[in-house]
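Q: We require from you a single protein entry containing the residue sequence and its fold in token form, and nothing else.
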Amino acid sequence: MKQRRLLEVDVFGLHPLSGNGLAVVLDGDGLDTARMQDFARWTNFSETTFVQKPTQPGADYRLRIFTPRQELPFAGHPSIGTAFAMLWSGQLPARQKQLHQECLAGVVPLRAVGNLSEREYMVRAPEPRITRLDGGEAERLCAALGCRTRPVHHVRVGAQWLVLELDSAAEVMSLNPDFSTLSALSKDGGATGVTVFGAHGVMSLDWLEVRSFAPADGIDEDPVCGSGNAAVAALLKAQSHEPGFAKTYSARQGRACHRDGRVRVEIHADGGIEIGGGAALISEGMLRV
């Protein structure tokens, strides 16, 4: 039985064990899809990743990303956590600043920012596609969240999210969703789940509070979600009436489920969206599967 190196990484956390956990299998070649899905279901992290040899020109490595129930074409916290793991473990040179990750969404660029001890990692999200839900679908979704009816958009950034803005960060924090109904509505809409956001007051370091719910994937609340934040940024970009709209901000996420993370967001004038944050090693060992 082959032994494979396994790292557990905390992504986006403001301190260890406060962010979103990720299992990274560094020697994923030779595992078939069913076995990878079995292991991701067993770990029960929001995502588990498997590193393989690249098949696309220019890629440093190939990444397979699994929730407990399905494979994803792209996700933010797995991309950032795996980039950290590749540099920390010596699979790539520790001082390498530009990385290219092959995943089902294509070859995705990442960059490491800062010195080796305090690095953050920024990943460019796939080009978004946005459609608006009809009034009846939006009404049912808002009822399941426990908020008044408002516009809801289906945002595809590799992962697919139903996204809506609430009146404030406080309203975001106060939600007590009906997860069984959210699960059904997510499946009906072909979405990973639901992401909500609202603004903090002017005195806050973070502009937005974000929560992401993915009960259809076996995760009632994703503690700190990269693709959910990318979907929020894509919607903000699409709704801006300012030519060449660009913005850099941070979003807080996780406090409603006893975590505490921060996601950096850069919306570029050319339409590109980067999300990022820090990562820390929590444990390492060997996978015997």
In short: The first strand starts at residue 3 and ends at 11. The two ends are 7 Å apart (CA to CA). The helical segments are 33-43, 76-88, 135-145, 169-174, 179-188, 226-239.
